[in-house]
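re the bet — no i am not wrong, look at it urself. input seq straight from the record:
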Amino acid sequence: MTRLWSAGRLTYPALALTALLSIFPIYWMFVVASRTSDAMGEVPPPVTPGGNLGSNIARLFTNTDAYFLTGLVNSTIVAVSVTVSVVFFSTLAGFAFAKLRFRGRNALLMVIIATMMVPTQLGVIPLYMLMTKLNWNDRLPAVIVPALVTGFGVFMMRQYAGQAVSTELIEAARMDGCNTARIYWNVVLPALRPAAAVLGLLTFMTTWNDFLWPYAVLNDPENPTVQLSLRALSDGYYQDMSQVFTGTAIATLPLLLVFIVFGRQIIGGIMEGAVKA
């Protein structure tokens, strides 16, 4: 058993090589963002940061074709709103499907799972027609509202709640006089924290990187998301690659920050559960 869990001679070199291959593209993106566009054609390519990061950022935020600052603000609003909503409703529904008994529970769960089998592209046209009837085109609610709840999130929380939340603990809370809402908030939600952190991380990354749906409903070039702003930077016959890489680097920073925050929550929840066990 000891040999099964001990690291071999090649374990750490393999992990170091994997980390290097994963980190280097991100590092080189920041290197090019700090240089001029000529750095893209240099042989060998530069591997140290340059001194043009400040000027590249200034040109990026004053670029009237990209509206990059507006894109950052819009993407932050959309991603945060969708993430909070998905985590809240998914944990709530997951708790209900896993621990509450009500008529039609299994049938309703199968309907939710069935929604996961429908490709996203098939819903673009009818959803666009609905947004048109609601007069939400070129407005952020058209991007936010359709993503407020996901079948994947509900199914994931249901599976995790079935194992992480003790039925005896819920019954003890009811005997103490707790209603269902308080049981969810004080008993179930803390137990679901690691899975909720994973779901929040995945949801934020997916929403932040989403391009297809915002591209379909946000036709106003002055009201983009960050991905539409990056597209505007790469349009045209001449592409200023230093601006493209600078915009990509800045758009990556919120993802790294969210990954660090949610990663700490995941580890904290796992350690808390291990201590209680």
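see?? DSSP finds 14 helices and no strands in the chain. told u. also The two ends are 22 Å apart (CA to CA). so pay up
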